[in-house]
Amino acid sequence: MKRVLIVKVTSLGDIVQALPVVADIKRAYPGVQVDWAADEAFAEVVHWSESVDRVLCAPLRRFKKARRWADFKAIWASIAELRAYRYDFIIDIHGVYKSAIIAFLARSSKRIGYQSQDLGERGAAFAYTGRFGPRPQCNAWHGMRISTGEALGYEVEGPAIYNLRLPEPASLPFGSNSAPVAALFHATSKDDKKWPLTHWAEVGRELAQRGFHVVLPWGSEGERAEAEQIASQVPGAAVLPKMSVTEIAQMIDACALVIGTDTGFVHLAHALQKRTVMIFVATSPSHCGIESPFRSISIGDGQSVPPVSAALEAIDYVHTDPHAVSMQSGSAAA
Description:
Belongs to the glycosyltransferase 9 family. It catalyses: an alpha-Kdo-(2->4)-alpha-Kdo-(2->6)-lipid A + ADP-L-glycero-beta-D-manno-heptose = an L-alpha-D-Hep-(1->5)-[alpha-Kdo-(2->4)]-alpha-Kdo-(2->6)-lipid A + ADP + H(+). With 334 residues, the protein is of the alpha/beta class. Helix content is 40%, strand content 15%. The chain has two domains: 150 residues, Rossmann fold, CATH 3.40.50.2000; 143 residues, Glycogen Phosphorylase B (Rossmann fold, 3-Layer(aba) Sandwich), CATH 3.40.50.
């Protein structure tokens, strides 16, 4: 096998969590070239992966919103780039019309996608010459790894490897503060996924008492107003300036702790191996959650609002020294 194309178009968290399939493929087939097709809005995230050989992108989301001629021309030009190579396999781990169209336009006789019941849009099935097996009984992220392995003939081994390298920041928004930084990602794209501002303020005050410098990023004016409301109740907390995706990623990489709802940047924190707590209010932690022993944890059942006590227990957990736990277990066994 010489070349594989992965199609995962959006969004930030989904793309980040899909990246480990590239390391899996390269472990199974040393020397293989792995390309990735994504929406232009998220292409920079794929560029951070040291495992991806070639990133293909087009302004699909922007064209859908604005219908500009310049964006249409950019999409048309991207098709030639997409067809520059013939692929041994095309793996569509997105499963909607736009990903299926990309898979269909690319050059390969083997285009693999989800079974009809597992597709985000059933009409996407037209593009595929083969299908993954039934959706595995695991979270969505590990499921993508298993499905890709089944399609390409290898078994998944070991933990997820994201292999991210961010560009060096010119500066950080919290300056040279020597205190460890805790970022609170309170904002989310859907109101039903929000955690109460009073809960955020209570957690922020506890972190400040523990010696953390609490910072609050935001993306819209409404989110900034909420960040300011939280910061007004947390000693020393700072509302960060407006930042790009790359700048937020660099900020996350400099943090000692990240706490947030089920959003892309919190998934990125997990991928960057930061100590991370993800709060689930209205989405499924068993399907979309994160977990790494003593480093990342998901809280909530996806049907109710987790209490502040659950978040504080999770913070204690991700700051637990696993070596000390191992020593205590050994002593108990003795």
